[in-house]
Amino acid sequence: MPMSFDIASYVREIALLAVPLLVAVTFHEVAHGYVAYLLGDPTAKAAGRLTLNPIKHLDPMGVLAFLLTRMIGWAKPVPVDPRYFKDPARGMILVSVAGPVMNFVLAVVFSVLFRVTGGLAVASEAGSLGAMIWEPLAYMCLAGVTVNLAIGLFNLLPIPPLDGSRIVAGLLPPRAAYAYLRYERYGFFVVILLAVTGLLGKLLFPAIIFMRGLIL
Structure pTM? Predict the structure, then answer.
């Protein structure tokens, strides 16, 4: 999805991406909170974050960043307290894995919907009401596949505070994990730097394209 400064193309892009993105980030965060809840942590539930209402999960600055870049955005992290877990390290690994796994499941769901809507679009007569309905929905479902793969893979990067860093920390000895997660304050700047230099795309796009090809 190349960047374009044409206002009509921009609005069209945002319209097609909005629903898949809201679904992706909402289910991602709920998955974190629900797995934590299953492991005994009531923090997310008490905070009202075990809900599919996307407004509860949106971060205004994250939304603004996405609208400006169409590449970088973020949601409010679900609060998790590992002290409730019988095994905090294992618990944090499971909670961290839950978000990306949910995105990969959603990518498969969107791929099925893409086949259905795409088939209906092809069967519709060009310019008909059916084509006007099914074609945009097919593109939206295709965007849903890409968006969920991108979010899932991005969050698996071992850059604090992304989910991948929590997984790595859970596998490290406690002292090493603490030292590793101390770099969390710099993680946002590292991500921005990777995005601006194009390295983030070089890291993620080949995997996204490969996985999308397999799913579709």
Answer: 0.91
